[in-house]
Amino acid sequence: MSVSSKLAIALTFTAISATSSVLANETNHLKGSFGHPLKNGTNELVWRLNNYNENSNKISSVKAPISKNIISERTFFDFDKHSLKESNNEQLDKILLKLKQTNLEKIVAYGYTDSKGNPNYNKKLSGLRAESVKKYFISKGIDSKYIVIESKGSDNPIATNNNEEGRAQNRRVEIKVFAKN
CA-CA distances (angstroms) from residue 20 to 11, 13, 27? Predict the structure, then answer.
């Protein structure tokens, strides 16, 4: 047998061994529809759980703490303003009283505007409105790590934007409080 034939056999054997070890290492990972291992947002492989069922291609559920939305409130704002009104403070104080009786997971403040004006400006204004609510909660002792804000602009109106009454209802922050069971 020639040296080149021996080298070819050795390379083939090495390639087969390497492929086998890669496949062996990936057998406990979930695979996507094209057969590639699935990775999470930080590029780590997603592992199969011990109770993975090959036949149903489903993973049995894992018990985790369940959170539930326990408070849904709205605060309203004047046209082109993001500062809280006195009536908003009273409403937010009532929410704070309820928070003291819960195992808080997170607070989400969604800021909205009416449809008047530039969409980019409205997006920024809606974020400032949500930020006003966040700052109020922080000033009352809620840790900022529990508060998330989202700018929605004029998306998802709750009333018509064809008259002042409807637009006034759309200038709001929706507050959702989630608690652990």
Answer: 14, 10, 11
pTM over 0.85, yes/no: no
Could you state, in order of their start, the residue ranges of all structural domains in the chain? Answer: 3-59, 67-180
Pick the CATH number of 67-180 from 3.40.640.10, 3.40.50.700, 3.40.50.20, 3.30.1330.60: 3.30.1330.60
At 44 the pLDDT is: 53
Q: What counts of helices (H) and strands (E) characterise the chain? A: 4, 6
Which residues, in sequence order, are CB contacts of 13 under 8 Å at separation 6+? none
Structure tokens at 125: 């204004």
Cα 145 to chain center, whole Å? 14
pLDDT at 114: 96
Summarised one tens digit per residue, pLDDT across range 1-52 is 555 444 444 444 444 444 333 443 444 444 554 555 555 555 555 444 444 4
Task: Please tell me the distance from the alpha carbon of residue 126 to that of residue 154, in angstroms, as a whole number.
Answer: 8
